[in-house]
Structures are given as C-alpha cells and as structure tokens.
Design goal:
The chain is α+β, with helices and mostly antiparallel strands. Helix content is about 15%, strand content about 30%. The chain has helices at about 5-20, 55-65, 85, 120-125, 150-155, 240-245, 310-315, 405-415; strands spanning about 100, 120, 135-140, 140-145, 155-160, 165-170, 175-180, 185, 185-190, 190-200, 200-205, 210-215, 220, 230-235, 235-240, 250-255, 295, 305, 315-320, 325-330, 350-355, 360, 360-365, 365-370, 370-375, 380, 385-390, 400-405, 420. The strands form 9 sheets. The protein has a 5-stranded antiparallel sheet with strand order 1-10-11-12-13, with no helix packed on it. A 4-stranded antiparallel sheet has the order 5-6-7-14. Strands 28-17-18-29 form a 4-stranded mixed sheet. The two termini are about 30 Å apart.
C-alpha cells in the first residue's frame, strides 16, 4: 500500500478544500476570477468591456441553447434515497464501501457545472495561454473545448453536444480526462461529485438514484445502478493554440460558472512531481514509476499503455489496439495542469492523440516532421489527426478512446495492461 508523505498529504487536503470553498459571486461567477486573465495566464488582460459581436454570438448560440435542462419528472425523487455510505450493507455494491476514501469535500463540495456557458475562441484567448491544456470533445460533428484550468476546480460538466447528452470529467489526482454519454435506459442523467475516492479516482454520483460511479471506468459501482456502464466518447487534451488553429469557431467553456475560483491557478502544486499518489488504497506495481505519464487505450478488451517518454522521443507509435490498426501521435504544445503554480506557465509536457490508422479504407503510416506528421502520399497532419496540407487536406482521422493519465491508476484498474516501452 502506498504511504503518502505527511507534508504532501497536507498540501493536497488544502488543495481539495480550496476547490470546495468560496461562494457564488454576485456577477455570475466572473468576479475576481477575471484576475487571471491579466497577470499570469498568458492572456491579454481582463475582459472588462462588454463582449463584442463575435463573443455575444458565441454566448447566445452556444451557451444559451445548451444550458442543461432540468431533470424530467421523476428524475429526482421527492424523497431521494440515502447516500450509499449511509445505507450500509443494504445497498447493492460491486465495490466494498470500505474501499472508498473520504476525499474531504462533501457531495458537490467540488461543484459540478450543470449549466455550462461558452465563449468564442477569441474571447477565451484573453485569459488562456497558448499552452493551456484544453480537453476537446467532438460529437455529431460539433467540437467543444473544456479548459483544464476550469475542470480542475469542478471535475464534472453536464452538457449536450451535437444533440447528445454528455458528461465531461477530469480527475486531477489521476490526471484523467474522460467523456461519456450520460444516459441510462435511454434517459439523460445528471452527475455530481460524491466527495469520495476509489483508488485515488473521482467517484461520481447520479442524482436520480445516488448510485456511485467510477470516473475511470464509467461504471456504477455502488447503489441501485450497480453494473451499469456509460458509453465512453473519444476526447483529446491539446494546448489552447492547437484548438484555436484547428477549430477557430469552437465554443470554449467560460469562467462564468456561478462560483468564484482562481481559474488558471493550480491547486495541486507539487503533486505531479511526487513519487506516489494521494489517498490511494490498492495494488501498485508494473514496470513504470507510479506517477509516470502514460497514454492508455484499449479499454478492458486490450489495455495498453504508451509511456510519455517514448512518445516524446519518437513522435509516432504505430500499433494494433483491440484488433484495430492505430497510430499514437505526440507533439509539443500543452502545459501540465498539475505543474507550476500557474497552469499556463507550467512545463510543456506535450499533447497526444490516438487514431485509427486508415483513410478511406486504406492503411495510413505517418512519420514525425517538426511537430507535424507526414504520410507517404505527401499529406501533412496535425497532432489532432487533421490533414492540414496536401492531397488529403481537411480529412479528420477517426479518434479512438484514450486517456492521458498516471501509471498507478491504469495499473490499479487494469493490472494486465501491456506496456509498449519501445
């Protein structure tokens, strides 16, 4: 079992408390949070003036129409069931209650975003730096960006993309960003943060039944819905500059969240450079250091991990994942969300993506070329899997579900993971 140092543990308890404290601002959440736009997040200053036509259009077209609808009748019972940790042995469970750890904040003490508001890329560029990591999720041809500078303080966004109800999640202790279709039995669900951890991983809960769900697997582990599994969606974490260049019209989650947080600051300073995870109970092992960054794919069928060091050295790794020819791409351009005190100023750890290695049924082989990638037909590709020049310009490779995470959590949940060290 991992034993975390007292000093680091104390700092992280304070970090978790920070995400849970601070009240609602009188101006819808921007308030003091705007300060990060002008003093260290790499932006051009606070947005003190009224938004221009472009920003207003983005807000009206994206945020206004996309606020999460209230639960349908019966979705939230008038007398909700007890929390699983209060129900004791009477609750259905695939994971023992004694395996959960109290993370500190109460349920929704780390507040999920239930009515996300979006802004135009140009407006987001006023407070996000070029290397600020942003999770991109594409559904039904619609792409949206979710800055980790915001997700670090909220962890869950209940949203709708391309007409599909989704939940976008980020667990800072695992550095794990994942997106799912938030439907169970063809009905949309609303998710919150339970305040519990399982193997140092975020435990979500659905508000209809208060069942507990593992963020890492998307599976209900305790409560009436135990055994249900959410459909996973591909995502990718890239630097803001990459998002702005590839999808200049994409809505970007704004700091108008309804709460006051120091967006752009990192409340987990020192965690990434530690030797061991925090609030972790479980088996550790395998060939890699516990806090090593890895790209993982293959799910339960063919779990595989690619060490970040190898990807940074080679740029391209070709492999077969769960019977599919795949390519893993890596390029510079994204800061660590868990590095220095200010995310935009943290070390550039790079950005990665996993894609099906074929175009129109034909196999695709790529070679690195100064932060881009070239195929044997003369087409140049970006790390986002978009052909940016050449005969195939405009083509988007099919994304495969993957995760940028720490080795300890991949091993804890999938100990049979094969590690491709090269």
């Amino acid at each position: 079992m991992i034993r975390t140092s007292v000093r680091l543990g104390t700092l992280l308890v304070l970090a978790l408390a920070l995400t849970a404290c601070a009240g609602t601002t009188s101006d819808g959440g921007e308030g003091d949070a705007r300060r990060s736009g002008g003093d260290g997040a790499g932006g051009a200053g606070a947005d003190e003036d009224a938004p221009g036509e472009e920003e207003a259009a983005a807000s009206e077209g994206a945020a206004g129409a996309l606020d999460v609808e209230p639960p349908t009748p019966g979705e939230e019972p008038a007398d909700p069931p007890p929390w699983p940790w209060e129900a004791g042995d009477d609750v259905e469970q695939a994971v023992g209650l004694d395996e959960l750890r109290d993370g500190g904040p109460p349920p929704d003490g780390i507040p999920p975003i239930d009515a996300p508001v979006f802004e135009a890329v140009a407006s987001a560029g006023g407070w996000l730096g070029e290397a600020d990591p942003v999770m991109i999720v594409e559904v039904g041809g619609e792409v949206r960006g979710y800055p980790l500078a915001i997700l670090t303080f909220h962890e869950i966004v209940n949203d709708t993309i391309g007409g599909v109800d989704v939940v976008v999640t980020y667990c800072p202790l695992c550095n794990s960003g994942l997106a799912f279709v938030r439907e169970v039995d063809d009905r949309p669900q609303s998710f919150g943060t339970s305040g519990r951890l399982w193997r140092s991983n975020l435990v979500m809960y659905d508000r209809a039944t208060r069942s507990l769900w593992s963020q890492f697997t998307g599976e209900a582990i305790i409560g009436p819905r135990t055994g249900e599994v959410l459909e996973r969606l591909p995502m990718q974490i890239v630097g803001f500059a990459e998002l702005a260049e590839r999808w200049p019209d994409a809505p970007v989650l704004s700091r108008d969240t309804g709460v006051d947080r120091p967006y752009g600051d990192n409340p987990y300073v020192g965690y990434e450079s530690s030797d061991e995870p925090f609030l972790f109970d479980g088996e550790t092992g395998g060939p890699l250091p516990q806090m090593a960054r890895v790209v993982t794919a293959g799910g339960e069928e063919d779990p595989v991990a690619y060490p970040w060091d190898r990807l940074a050295a080679e740029g391209v790794v070709s492999d077969e994942i769960a019977g599919t020819d795949a390519v893993v791409l890596w390029a510079e351009g994204a800061a660590s969300a868990l590095g220095g005190p200010v995310i935009a100023d943290a070390e550039d750890v790079g950005q990665a993506g996993v894609f099906r290695a074929e175009v129109d049924g034909e196999p695709l082989r790529l070679e690195p070329d100064d932060g881009r990638f070239v195929d044997d037909g003369g087409t140049t590709w970006s790390v986002t899997g978009v052909a940016i020049d050449g005969p195939r310009e405009g083509t988007q490779l099919e994304r495969l579900p993957h995760d940028d995470t720490f080795w300890f959590v991949q091993f804890a949940f999938r100990p049979d993971t094969r590690v491709e060290e090269g």
